[in-house]
Design brief:
The chain is of the alpha/beta class. The protein has one domain: Spore Coat Polysaccharide Biosynthesis Protein SpsA, Chain A. It has eleven helices and nine strands. Helix 1 links the parallel strand 1 and strand 2. Helix 7 packs parallel to helix 8. The longest helix has 19 residues. The protein is globular and about 60 Å long.
Length: 283
Amino acid sequence: MRFSIIVVCLNAGEKLYSTLDSILKQTNKDYEVVIKDGLSTDDSVSKLQSKLLDGTLGELVPSSKDSSQDKLKERIHIYSEKDKSIYDAMNQAVRYAEGEYYIFLNCGDLFASETVLEDMAKAMDKEADIYYGDMIRSGCDQVIASYPEITDFVCYRNIPCHQVCFYSKKMFEERGYDLSFPIRADYEHFLWCKYEKKASFAYTGTVVCIYEGNGFSETKDNEKAALLEHKTITNRYLGKKCILYRFIMIITLQKLRKKMAESKAWAGLYQKLKGFIYGKRKA
């Protein structure tokens, strides 16, 4: 099996169904869906399980009507068990995954088109450990292009989010997400892959997902803690280079640029300027 699409949830409601609907629309069918539920109490998962078993999943997930019941039952795997956090849930899900490459979608995130898996499969010709692409941030309607090379500065500043990354399963064989970083564990794991596992990366240019935004690490309550974790992680993997990178971020008005990138009014112009500066293709 080529792909394991991992979705963790806890009382996600309709967002779970919309994400699953996006997945089942994929033209490339060489995948499984691993849904890891943290014992939801809103009936979203129990309803999904019931509809999957009795053959009426199409009432919740319209695209499922295009697949036979046997195929749906083979493809969709639901596991419910208590977890300590979103990253603990992702670690649990990995233990059930059987694909060659893993991608993690949060409830509310969508594949950007029906051919994402097909396009990624075609691009996987370099035997890279991590393939990645671009995203569209919901509400901005602009492609946010990832950097074509994963340099030290990119690792400090802005790595691709996990919703656009396809991880080789061997990136999780030795260890999963470090739960001592409750907010930035995905960031720490990415840097661990690069600096400890010496992972190889391949940028594909594929627009992978429509990212809902306002994720766990982006909430106002977690903002301060996220910054502290970022400092700890970058000091661990980048050392003294962080001093230079912090200075560069200040003099290049990083906070203003972040607001522009997330603004519907300014995002288009910002991405064009970014593409011009970094020599990226226009998406």
